[in-house]
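Possible regression after last week's pipeline update?

I re-ran a chain I had predicted before the update to compare outputs. Posting the input and the new output here so someone can diff against the archived version. Not blocking, just want to make sure nothing changed silently.
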Amino acid sequence: MKLLRFGPPGHERPGLLDRNGVIRDLSGVVSDIGPATLTEDGLAHLRTLDTDRLAQVPDGTRLGPCVTGVSKVVCVGLNYRAHAAESGLPEPAEPVLFMKATTAICGPNDPVQMPRGATKLDWEVELGIVIGRTARYVDQADAFDHIAGYCVLNDVSERAFQTESTGQWVKGKSADSFCPIGPWMVTRDEVPDPQALRLWLEVDGQPMQDSTTADMIFGVAEIVSYISRFMTLLPGDVIATGTPQAFALLRWLSGSTNEAGPGDAWFCAGVAVLLLAVLPLTVKWLEILPLGDVTARAVGLPVRRCRILLVLLAGLLTAAAALFVGPLSFIGLIAPHLARLAGLGRPLQQGIGAVLIGAGLMVMSDWLARTVAFPYQLPLGLFAALLAGPYLVWLLGRSNARSP
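New output (post-update):
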């Protein structure tokens, strides 16, 4: 079953989504989708209903939080392997727990309210677990018996409140509207394997996250068992199981504030060095033109057409490199050639280029770290830097060797 709640805020009524995707009114059967309904007996009673005889809910009716009577929202942090890797952090040895205030709960499509003083609003799609039976010191093998169902949860956060001031994360997690849940709760019997579910998130139609629960470090059963060691879980309680990795480039472009880790910086520095290594061959497009003759003979095309294609390719590579390495490094790369034209000596040419390129890499590595998401930044970044660094030095030296 897919259970939900509909109606104005504070006056929601219980409902369900039938097999045809039609919302049906359950208010004549149960008072609400709360702790009493989420028990085994409560759900068993709902399964006996002939849903075709229930009243239809008009299209466009607001959907509220899919459950009510939530005594606490317990959250698990850093619970996806790829997310830990993109953050440059080791996988935790045991679940990292924090709380969200229940006053943060809202409907799945309700507007998110930016709190006063907020500057770094962020989003995280998560699988939510809804408890249906009191859980206290539960063995992992028995954990599923205590679950009523699952829902989608958005762990909205204010990163400045969360990490840039003293205290615990709860400050950045608990503002009103910071916990949209729904649109419905899917009962446990309809989810044979909660570790094989796709999770995805869009912001203004732009895809930001797309992963599966198979990447969880701690699975659903382990999470329920672990939390029950430290607190009693009551029917209606919600557990947010953690968020997968993000498409960080799109996160940055959307204005979000993903915090970069050291792995990101190494990877981005490596990418920047690789791009810088090929840039001298693209910015000096006049020197590329002779390649048009060679290419034309090799592929049998007119020389003029090959030259035009090579110039266009050089321009695209130059634009891409300029985007990734930033204006300082871009200027630093062409500075030796400009200095040569101005009649400056080789030491000065090399000095100007090296200073600008180094400064550009330092500035842009941090920027790139907030725009690139990849699980293996550190080893690939180091490899790219070791591979491309000497090549870059050789290219610049070869180019400057032609200077007077």
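Follow-up from reviewer: compared with the archived run. The chain has a mean pLDDT of 77. Marking as no regression found.
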